[in-house]
Amino acid sequence: LKAKYLTAVASAADESALEEVRVAALGKKGEISALMAGLGKMEPDQRKAAGAMLNVVKDEIDAALRARKAGLADAALDARLKGEWLDVTLPARPRRVGTIHPVSQVMEELTAIFADMGFAVAEGPQVESDWYNFDALNIPPEHPARQEHDTFFMNRAAGDDRPPHVLRTHTSPVQIRAMTEQGAPIRVIAPGRVYRMDMDQTHTPMFHQVEGLCIDRDISMANLKWVLEEFCRAFFEVPSVELRFRASHFPFTEPSAEVDIRCSWEGGQLKIGQGDKWMEILGSGMVHPKVLKAAGVNPDEWQGFAFGMGIDRIAMLKYGIPDLRAFFESDLRWLRHYGFAA
Ligand code: PHE
């Protein structure tokens, strides 16, 4: 009997076959268990001898079962390790990852550059009341500049008595908000989205500007010129840039100047700092006394400059991108071509 089961244990090919052997021998209805149960009907000394012997047999079979079980588990593990091995030295498969959009990247860069010059960041809403967007900036309702702004107006239902709102056409309303909140002296930039109904190679209906505002007791156009040149050198990473100040007109600055930067087109490549072309990048000037007044700042005590720069424009120049519209088409092939996406 013992030999029969030891042989069965040894030849069980897997754990379930082994379990069958265990049940047949030691299970409740197993052969050994049945013999054990039979002990009760024996004479005392017969029972003693048979019981001792049965116990030995049972223990031996039990030990063999355990040993075989451990052996089978080891073998199963070995087989798995052989079958499922992994070469950790293989190079990883390339995986596409998301990246920061070039315009966001440029916003972060310019914020850092202006921060080095002491400018904090100010913010305002993209849906702006027409008072902040126009009136406070010395553009009264009948002013022709209102038409030139190609404004998106917010719908108002009949009976809605909230003041009229627009999608802000420039970041200049943030000048008013910042001065009203913080007073003077003040040195802030305000990067953000602005909207105008305009669409061609260099215009999109949504684009980005960064407003600059610096008010103190004796800030002048000379300070403006230095700040802009310093910014351009740092931003375009060139030792020097040539800027051109063109006399211009904005209702909210007096005097006003538009600023162009030297650039060139060579073999379809846009280059910055050199060449025969000028690219307009910003409007600027000395903040108009009426604007200071509208924001609660005394123009007899304070003065300073403001500028509004096209972020997408300077991003195009920095990365040599000819068509502004591509920035906002989310075309992965385009983003990858310019190295903006993996
Ligand atoms: N807000 C003007 C524009 O959008 C730019 C500007 C800002 C001009 C500040 C002067 C001063 O064109």
UniProtKB/TrEMBL annotation:
Keyword Nucleotide-binding: yes
Residues of the Aminoacyl-transfer RNA synthetases class-II family profile domain: 104-342
Co-factor(s): Mg(2+)
Catalytic activity: tRNA(Phe) + L-phenylalanine + ATP = L-phenylalanyl-tRNA(Phe) + AMP + diphosphate + H(+)
SUPFAM superfamilies, sorted: Class II aaRS and biotin synthetases (SSF55681), tRNA-binding arm (SSF46589)
GO cellular component, one term: cytoplasm
Protein name, entry field: Phenylalanine--tRNA ligase alpha subunit
Source species of the chain: Paragemmobacter aquarius
Gene: pheS
